[in-house]
Amino acid sequence: MAQNASDPRGVRPSAVLDLAARAAAAETHADALRDATARDFAIPEALRLDERTRSGIALRIESIITSIEAGLLYAVAPLGFPGIGPTLPLLRRAGLAADAALVGEVLAQVRLDQLAQGLPHHAPRDPARPSLLGRLAEHPVEALAGAARSLMVAESSARSPEAGHWQLPRDLHRQLLWWVAAAMREQAGTLAGVALDEALCAAVAAEHARFEQRAQDQPEAASCQLVALLAPAPRERAAMLVEALADRRLPLFLALIAQAGGIAFADARALVLDPGAERLLLVLHALAIPRDSLAQIGFLLCDADPGRDLPALVDALDALDAQDFGAGRDLLARLRLDADYRAARSAIGGARAAIP
Questions:
Q1: Stated pTM of the model
Q2: Are 75 and 184 in contact (CB under 8 A)?
Q3: Dihedral, CA atoms, 119, 265, 102, 331, nearest 10 degrees?
Q4: How far apart are alpha carbons 282 and 264 in whole angstroms?
Q5: What HEC string does 17-51 produce?
Q6: Interior angle at CA 186, CA 184 and CA 192, nearest 5
Q7: pLDDT, tens digit (0-9, with 9 covering 90-100), for 307-338
Q8: Cα distances (angstroms) measured from residue 347 to each of 22, 153, 354, 355
Q9: Is the distance from CB of 226 to CB of 151 less than 8 angstroms?
Q10: Cα–Cα distance between 325 and 335 in angstroms, integer?
Q11: Contact 293/280 with Cβ under 8 angstroms?
């Protein structure tokens, strides 16, 4: 006699439970897909990332996490927990791989790399004259020459695939260490005990100590150290800025802006990455950079980034002629405020604006 398809007799109870679980999972997936699609659809076109940038962010985050894993795994490998593997899927499920601070930092790094790659190669006016950094590396003052050579080494080392996590801000690097360690502990499950907890905490402390040791060897720190030693006079600043950018030495270019304005390197980076460059122009104008140098800087950035609007740049340069230094100085004053204070004000202001 044929068995009724709706009759569970003869069917393993585990199969019934498995089918119910899969149905529930399908419903959860459908809900998640709907919500994700709604969020994606709500993103304005002006804020939507191009595929190259999106892919660059994903690859860099994966590289950073993989490098951190390697350091922690080396420390806990003697304990022998075979269940520990790649942690990025678990971090994604927990929403940590989409953390705003992490994504924001990686986005800035990727866009800066794209800008550096897009800067045109210009033949020097005098082929016999070394580049700015080349001249500094041969400076008669040994401290300056050594700092210039250190920057060259740092830029070369930064190109290695495993170098990404050393280039993160200190607090963000430490947070990532703890996230990866926690994901490893989660993977080990009930088989693990306090010995793994202790080993992971010790490994995080050791990796953070290595980060502190290597922090001064990164292009950002090396550039800032060189510029601090140079301490260029206002009359020298414009030529150095143009030459650093023309030489495709973006970290040095940013460090010069940061030193001149008394602002953080990250804030100088944000100014340069603004597609319209209005804030950058106001700041450089307030720093008494001449109009012809501003034009050279603006045109170089437009050459490097096809998304920039050249006619808008020309209009902005024309508008600067009638602009006093007040707006740029006010902007610099705000950027000199503590970054955490500015972030808190932004959060409070956003919450206030959302209240009906």
A1: 0.85
A2: no
A3: -100
A4: 17
A5: HHHHHHHHHHHHHHHHHHHHHHHHHCCCHHHCCCH
A6: 85
A7: 888 888 889 998 888 888 888 999 999 999 99
A8: 40, 39, 11, 13
A9: yes
A10: 16
A11: no
